[in-house]
Structures are given as structure tokens and as C-alpha cells.
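User: Please predict the structure of the protein below. I'd like the answer in C-alpha cell form so I can feed it into my own downstream comparison script.

Assistant: Understood. Taking the following sequence of 151 residues as input:
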Amino acid sequence: MDHTDREPKLLLPFLQPFYDRVIPLAWPLVRLAVGWDLIVHGYGKILRGPTQQAEILGRDGLKYAYFFALLLIFTEFVGGLCISAGLFTRFFAAVTAVEMGYLTFHHYWGNGFSWLNRGYEYVLLWGMVSLAIALRGGGPYSLDRKLGREL
């Protein structure tokens, strides 16, 4: 469906050429923001190591903690790189959305909304943005598009 006829008129029409140039960059910027956040968290888990990460998860009552530690490292570090580049974007964004959903409802929900109180605000935000990426895909400036295939 073409939505160009529904775009609002600009208050400053002379900005139209600027917007025409930068709007295509919005989606890669969103992917980079999510990817970077995941990479940083995944790299921290790599430095900590899967055994220590599993101990942390085990203290929180998670069964199969070592398996989940490896899964989190893979999802966050490799997934973050892939989302940033737009490679296997839908897959990694969907896995990230599931991870953030788990963290939101299982781990942080009882603390309330505010991230300052270890609440679910942060993980809910990143989960929703990851879900949007999973639904939209990599977009025009992605390796998925360059390859002509996506999951």
C-alpha cells in the first residue's frame, strides 16, 4: 500500500530535499542502535565467560544455566553484529525479542517499570524495538537485501 499521499505537509517545505536524503538512513540507524547495545552486552558475557555467566543465571533460578549462558552470548554478540549489518536480521531480531520478553516478564516484572529500580523499562523497550525489526526485516541497506534472501 502506498502511503505517500498520506504524508503530512511540512511546515518548512524547503527541508523536503534534506528529508528525502536522510529518511532512508533511519532504519539502518535503528538496526545499529539495537545491534550495538546487544554487542556490548554480549561482549561483557564473553569476557565473563560462559561458566561465570551460568553461575549468575543459576543464582536467579534458571535451569540449564550453562546452555542459556551460551545461548545469550551467541544471541547478543553474534546477533548484535548480524542485526547491525542486516544479516539474518529477522531471525536474530526475533530471538532477541523473545529474550527481552523473558527478561521483562520473568526477571524484572516484579520490580515495577522503572529501570532505576531494576524494573522492566529497559528490556521492554529493546524487546519492542527488536520485534519491530523482526517484523520489518533488514531494510534496503542490509546484507539480507544485498543477498536477495532473508529468513
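That's the full C-alpha cell string. Residues 27-141 form one domain.
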